[in-house]
Structure formats: structure tokens, C-alpha cells
């Protein structure tokens, strides 16, 4: 992490300095969460949907912030002096973006931008692992993919970085990805897929596709777009790219494609990969139904930058590329598949596929609401319900939307002549669902936990893991 000189902030925006700050001041970091402020930080006051960061300026001062980056409007409304020096600007977030863009200009590196409805973080990890076999590679931490997170990632990079792999969101409005691309200046773009995730905000799946295409449109003539050719909406973005286009997928029409795909439960996946006239038999530690597509995307990026397959293979074998699905010990000798990060119909179906492959006395699915699906909410939940009826022995739902899964699963199981046990909990019954699982799970059971991020189902995993008394069995 590099220090950020006051001069860099002043150079990037029309800043009014209020209070005592020496011209040579360097900030340890720019921090938006007042609870995370460390002495010497510059606290940035961000106005969000629920909270206004300006309300936490005193807290940041109390934790040792050297100054606060605040809006001119807020400052004009204050009746008393602030408890620390202020950098007053029209828009603190825009200033942060300007500082990050200026730093990006000073770094002689290549940027890979990754977007899509699902799989961005997993794709980022495997792409970075492959590229790191040749280049000093930075990957944005977690899901730092927003108009605030991405600039902070650019500021975090060390000066000797050769390639940066950055996750880019752009799920809520037109122009978001174009803005992120303007800040990061990616030379390579990866688009994983287009699904009805955040449909509630964007209105139509065509609108979602249009937002993702903004990244492709930003690629320069000497760059490349790496597109999931099996997704027709992603493939349709090819003409928008001014540079080279490489497609990947499971059909032979793609530039890089795979067949003879075999999934081996928690041991990973194997497949035959085709690149031009050459074929390679590969095995990767990734688990889940989309494991091969993730690997193909990484191979396509490596190929675009000039790496050989032999050079890439060690990166594909890195066990750290598995960032979502974890198999941990649960209570009473059970095992728990932790896939609680988020949920959409494709990702839940993929997780159910893994649950089917893992041996166990009983297969139990603990599924929460899938949110922000708009007009296809019921359809997507019923789709999952039909698959549940084929795979699981017991279903536990969390939330009112997940009850649609339960209803469809019960109806489908009845038609198929299967018995399916179902127990449903409301969102306010968090303690009750944990208590139920602790008493219900027994030796030999395998339980999948998955739901939308806002449900915080990872708390359930922590409770079950604590009762199980062990760490991850597989963090492939």
C-alpha cells in the first residue's frame, strides 16, 4: 500500500483546504469506513442510500484521521469548526476517482477488466493466477468492483505491478462500467455471462447486456475482448470491440473450447481443451458446474497476452483459485457446502449439481431468497425448485421468496413419486433456523447453504462450523 500525497488530491480536483495541513503531508490511506480509520488516513465522506459518511467525520477524527475529504455542500451547512482538517470538494467520490485515474496514468501496466452477471470474482482469481506465472500481477481484493472500490484498488497497487486484474461491477445503471473503464483504462475485457441478476433495477435482460457491453466498447485497438461465446448476448458484443475478439465456451464454434468434461466432486474437474489445431487434457481443482468455463476464460486471457499453455498450467493448478464453494465440517459428523456469497438461478443450479455429486447419507439444501430478479422472480425460483426435487432429500428455505422454491419442489417431487421433507423459516427466524440445523444434521449428511448476499447466510455457516469444530475440508 502506497502513501497518498496531499498534492495528488489537490492536483486532481478543485480542493479547498480548511485547517492546518503541511504541503508535504502524505496520507497513509483513503478510508471510507470510519470504524476502519487508522492514524494518518484521509477519511472520505461518502453519501450512500442508507448512511451519509459526513455524519461520521467526528468518529474518523477520534480514530486519528489526518483529514477528511468532504463535499462543499455539507461544509456550507456546518455551524461549528470540524475536529480535523478538511479537504472540501464538489464531490468526494469524483475526487477519489480522479486521484486513482491520475495514478493509473503513471503506471506502465496492462489492465484486465472482468464483468458479467455471475462469476466475476472467481474469474478474476483464476485469470490472475494464470497471468502471475509470467507477470507481477495484482488482483483487486474481494469484490472491490464499484465506483469507490475500483479506485481504491488502483491506489493500492505497488509500482512494480505489470498486470492488474480488476473486477468491474456496473449492475445498476447505464454508464457505470464506462466510468470504471475511463478510470482504469483496461486493455483486455472479459465478459462472463448475462443473466437476470439485478433485473429489478435494470428492467430487462437486454438492458443488463447493454451495461456489460460498455466494457467491451472501451477496449482500444491494441487490446482484446474475451467473450463467453456460449452466451448469445455476450457473443453479440463482439462487433463493439475495436480490438481483437476471442470467444470461449463448450461448443466448437468458439476460439477456445472444451469437451470431454468430467466433474469429480470436491476433487475438481477435468476436460479436453482445444486451441487452434492443438488439444490439451487438463485437470483443475475448481469445483462446481462453471469450473471449466472459468478455466477457459483464464486460458483465453493468457493466450491474448502471448502466454503458452504450458506456461499457464501451473496457474490453473493453484488451489487458491477456489474462492466460493467450500466444504467444511458441520455438526454431528455432517459436512456443509458453503456457497453463501450470493445467489442467482444459474449459480444455485450449479451448486445443486455439486451437491448431487458428493456422496452422503442425506442431501440437504438450505436455500434463501434470490433477490433483484424483477419480473422473472417467480419463474427463476420455480426453476430452482424443480431441480431441488431431483437432487435433495430435505429442503430448508429462508425467506418468503424461497417458499416458492419449496412449493415447486414439493409439487415436482410428488409428480416424480419422490418424498421430500420441507421446512421453511421467515427472515426474522435467524436463530430458529440455526437451532433447527444443529439438531437436524447428523453423521453422513451433506448440506448446501446458499442465498442472496443480503441474507447474510454466512452467519449460519459460522455457527455450524463452530459446532463442527473444524476448518475447511476443501478450499480448492
How would you describe this structure to a colleague?
- 36% of the residues lie in helices and 22% in strands.
- It is an alpha/beta fold.
- It folds into three domains: 4-89, 3-Layer(aba) Sandwich (Udp-n-acetylmuramoylalanyl-d-glutamate--2,6- Diaminopimelate Ligase, Chain: A, domain 1); 107-321, Mur-like, catalytic domain (UDP-N-acetylmuramoyl-L-alanine:D-glutamate ligase); 326-474, Protein-Tyrosine Phosphatase, Chain A, CATH 3.90.190.20.
- The chain has a nine-stranded mixed β-sheet with strand order 9-10-8-11-12-13-14-15-16, with helices on both faces. Strands 21-20-19-22-18-17-23 form a seven-stranded mixed β-sheet, with helices on both faces. Strands 2-7-6-5-4 form a five-stranded mixed β-sheet.
- α6 links the parallel β9 (137-139) and β10.
- α4 (92-106) packs parallel to α6.
Instruction: Provide the domain count.
Output: 3
First-last Cα distance: 28 Å
Major sheet: arrangement of strands: 9-10-8-11-12-13-14-15-16
What is CATH's topology name of the largest domain?
UDP-N-acetylmuramoyl-L-alanine:D-glutamate ligase
Largest sheet: 9 strands, mixed
Helix content: 25-40%
What's this, in brief?
With 476 residues, this protein is of the alpha/beta class. It is built from 17 helices and 23 strands. Strands 9-10-8-11-12-13-14-15-16 form a nine-stranded mixed β-sheet, sandwiched between helices.
Keywords:
disordered C terminus; 3 domains; 23 strands; Protein-Tyrosine Phosphatase, Chain A; Udp-n-acetylmuramoylalanyl-d-glutamate--2,6- Diaminopimelate Ligase, Chain: A, domain 1; nine-stranded mixed β-sheet; 476 residues
Amino acid at each position: 500500500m502506497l502513501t497518498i500525497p496531499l498534492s495528488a488530491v489537490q492536483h486532481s480536483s478543485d480542493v479547498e483546504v480548511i485547517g492546518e495541513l503541511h504541503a508535504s503531508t502524505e496520507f497513509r490511506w483513503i478510508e471510507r469506513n470510519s470504524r476502519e480509520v487508522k492514524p494518518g488516513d484521509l477519511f472520505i465522506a461518502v453519501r450512500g442510500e442508507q448512511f451519509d459518511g459526513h455524519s461520521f467525520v467526528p468518529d474518523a477524527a477520534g480514530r486519528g484521521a489526518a483529514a477528511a475529504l468532504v463535499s462543499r455542500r455539507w461544509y456550507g451547512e456546518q455551524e461549528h469548526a470540524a475536529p480535523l482538517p478538511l479537504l472540501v470538494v464538489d464531490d468526494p467520490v469524483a475526487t477519489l476517482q480522479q486521484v486513482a485515474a491520475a495514478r493509473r496514468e503513471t503506471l506502465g501496466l496492462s489492465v484486465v477488466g472482468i464483468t458479467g452477471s455471475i462469476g466475476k470474482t472467481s474469474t478474476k482469481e483464476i485469470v490472475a493466477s494464470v497471468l502471475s506465472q509470467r507477470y507481477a500481477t495484482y488482483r483487486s481484493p474481494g469484490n472491490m468492483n464499484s465506483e469507490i472500490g475500483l479506485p481504491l484498488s488502483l491506489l493500492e497497487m505497488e509500482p512494480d505491478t505489470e498486470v492488474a486484474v480488476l473486477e468491474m461491477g456496473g449492475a445498476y445503471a447505464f454508464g457505470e462500467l464506462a466510468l470504471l473503464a475511463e478510470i482504469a483504462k483496461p486493455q483486455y475485457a472479459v465478459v462472463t455471462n448475462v443473466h437476470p441478476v439485478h433485473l429489478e433495477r435494470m428492467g430487462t435482460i437486454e438492458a443488463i447486456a447493454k451495461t456489460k457491453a460498455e466494457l467491451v466498447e472501451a477496449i482500444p485497438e491494441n487490446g482484446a475482448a474475451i467473450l463467453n461465446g456460449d452466451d448469445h448476448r455476450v457473443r453479440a458484443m463482439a462487433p463493439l470491440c475495436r480490438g481483437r475478439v476471442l470467444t470461449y465456451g463448450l461448443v466448437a464454434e468458439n476460439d477456445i473450447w472444451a469437451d470431454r468434461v468430467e466433474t469429480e466432486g470436491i476433487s475438481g474437474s477435468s476436460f479436453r481443451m482445444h486451441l487452434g489445431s492443438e488439444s490439451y487434457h487438463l485437470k483443475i481443482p475448481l469445483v462446481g458446474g462453471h469450473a471449466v468455463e472459468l478455466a477457459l476464460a483464464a486460458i483465453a486471457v493468457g493466450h491474448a497476452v502471448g502466454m503458452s499453455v504450458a506456461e499457464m498450467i501451473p496457474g490453473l493448478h493453484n488451489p487458491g483459485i477456489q474462492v466460493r464453494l467450500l466444504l467444511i465440517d458441520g455438526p454431528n459428523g455432517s459436512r456443509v457446502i458453503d456457497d453463501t456469497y450470493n445467489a442467482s438461478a444459474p449459480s444455485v443450479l450449479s451448486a445443486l449439481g455439486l451437491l448431487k455429486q458428493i456422496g452422503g447419507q442425506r442431501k440437504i439444501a438450505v436455500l434463501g431468497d434470490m433477490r433483484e430478479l424483477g419480473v422473472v422472480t417467480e419463474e427463476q425460483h420455480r426453476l430452482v425448485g424443480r431441480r431441488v426435487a431431483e437432487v435433495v432429500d430435505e429442503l430448508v428455505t429462508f425467506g418468503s421468496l424461497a417458499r416458492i422454491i419449496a412449493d415447486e419442489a414439493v409439487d415436482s417431487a410428488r409428480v416424480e413419486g419422490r418424498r421430500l421433507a420441507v421446512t421453511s423459516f421467515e427472515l426474522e427466524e435467524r436463530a430458529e433456523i440455526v437451532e433447527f440445523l444443529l439438531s437436524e444434521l447428523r453423521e453422513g449428511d451433506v448440506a448446501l447453504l446458499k442465498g442472496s448476499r443480503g441474507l447474510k447466510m454466512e452467519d449460519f455457516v459460522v455457527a455450524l462450523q463452530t459446532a463442527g469444530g473444524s476448518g475447511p475440508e476443501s478450499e480448492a
